[in-house]
Automatic annotation (TrEMBL), chains A, B:
Residues 5-134 form the VOC domain. Belongs to the methylmalonyl-CoA epimerase family. This is Methylmalonyl-CoA epimerase. It comes from Sphingomonas turrisvirgatae. NCBIfam families: metmalonyl_epim (TIGR03081). CDD domains: MMCE (cd07249). PANTHER family: METHYLMALONYL-COA EPIMERASE, METHYLMALONYL-COA EPIMERASE, MITOCHONDRIAL. GO terms for biological process: L-methylmalonyl-CoA metabolic process. It holds the Pfam family Glyoxalase_4. GO terms for molecular function: metal ion binding; methylmalonyl-CoA epimerase activity.
Amino acid sequence: MQLGRLNHIGIATPSIEASVAFYRDVMGAQKVHTPFDLPAQGVKVCFVDTPNTQIELLEPLGEGSPIHGFLAKNPAGGQHHVCYEVPDIHEAKAWFEAKGAKVLGEPRIGAHGTLIFFLHPRDMGGVLTEIMETPRAEDGH
Amino acid sequence: MQLGRLNHIGIATPSIEASVAFYRDVMGAQKVHTPFDLPAQGVKVCFVDTPNTQIELLEPLGEGSPIHGFLAKNPAGGQHHVCYEVPDIHEAKAWFEAKGAKVLGEPRIGAHGTLIFFLHPRDMGGVLTEIMETPRAEDGH
């Protein structure tokens, strides 16, 4: 397997609205996408473009959101995960399992509409890592 | 100011040697640069290429390294900072100061040989943020 594009960095925030204002007014983001809910993962999501990758802002959605625990430790928000693209999600899952890395659950549809899974940070040098099948160009992502 | 390229994500590690083996053998990195010491910042540095950005591995160098505190909290390592490019470091410093963000020290030479500064995470949504003047093409970085 080859290390793929860094699709995005995931940034947790207590407020997407406040973070969008920050990225637009302080960081100078030129393109902020429309926020949307991803109930299956317990998050509200908003993508912000950089010239070569994206920032994925994550706000808790619902009581069981995995972001609550992160924000309890980091009330202002912070770096939550990184996401790399792969051409085939099932091949990638088999690859990481063969390397002894803990795959967290089965591949499921992620924020860009393609299959994703997460890898446990303990096997990833302390970095919560998302693996995502590369969106096809015709998907418009 | 416009949000620039994500030049790299900074990942702290207790061992660059072990992390290089991980990125090469597990993550499938195709290009790992030669590690080098950056004594002025108390770090040993190693860049790993992804197709669209870089990972900057950071190991403590010396007793006063700022990475020691991070590793005390995160012994396995983890996401340390993100770095965005700007065309002019002094304009960027004035911009962020005008926005009320805390610039940590004066611009200084960073790991890619151009001027950099860091911004306090409390003003950056919890994200330790490095701002870096874009390397010129002729620098070969």
